[in-house]
Write a structure and sequence with these properties.
Elements (H helix, E strand, L loop, with lengths): L10 H7 L5 H10 L5 E5 L5 H7 L4 E6 L2 H5 L7 E5 L12 E7 L7 H11 E12 L3 E2 L5 H11 L8 H5 L10 E2 L6 E6 L1 H8 L3 H10 L4 H12 L6 E13 L2
Parallel strand pairs: 1-2, 1-4, 2-3, 4-5
Antiparallel strand pairs: 5-9, 6-9, 7-9, 8-9
Helix pairs in contact: 1-8
Amino acid sequence: MGFQDHFSGHAGDYRAFRPTYPPELADTLAAAAPSQDLAWDVGCGNGQFSVDLAQRFRTVHATDASAEQIAQAEPRPNIRYAVAPAEASGLPDRSCDLIVAAQAAHWFDLDRFYAEVRRVAKPGAAVALACYALQELDDPVLDPVIETFHNGTLAPYWPADRWKVVDGYRGMAFPFRELPVPPMAMTADWPLPRLLAYMNTWSGVKAATKALGRNPLDAFAAEIAPLWGEPERVRTIRWPLTVKLGRVG
């Protein structure tokens, strides 16, 4: 399976409009690692989570198969960004304390990725897969409109692997001794235009726009606007996180 590139064409928007991870995610992963020398952030995109890891590890090796995403990454003195697939990191054997893929593992060739994890992991290293699916809003009237758009309007246009995220990685192979993880979520306080900008980064929206010759988000915006109220009204948005955390070896 080759690299599935759904985001390079809008790497700048991806950096600008995606939500951010809660600090307790990096804290939990760092605490599970045998030491805090080297973390490998796999499928790092624009380095959003790499920056969090860099506050907790001496060095972060952050890789993505998309050169455009790496070009958008936020530099830090202790982050080494590199264009590389998840299945071939370029790291030395037995070098990593933590291997983590945040919102990325569903695109990988998992058998080859897990072989790479075992190769680069130090004894007792931690490995984690994290993902978030559909957002939840602070008004139950709004959620069904978003669900219909995501699961109905966009259904023919989502890459097949997107549904692994929607399913919270249930049923996805994870051949490591699992460790407990406390419940956690990403949150943001956004007005309607900011939410729409985020949704416009969805690969399903991009594919639908290309196929239809128009952006289906326009009709969605018209539908949700009267339910939202004033467009600049700020609402709390929540993305529950799924985190599979395990021990290598």
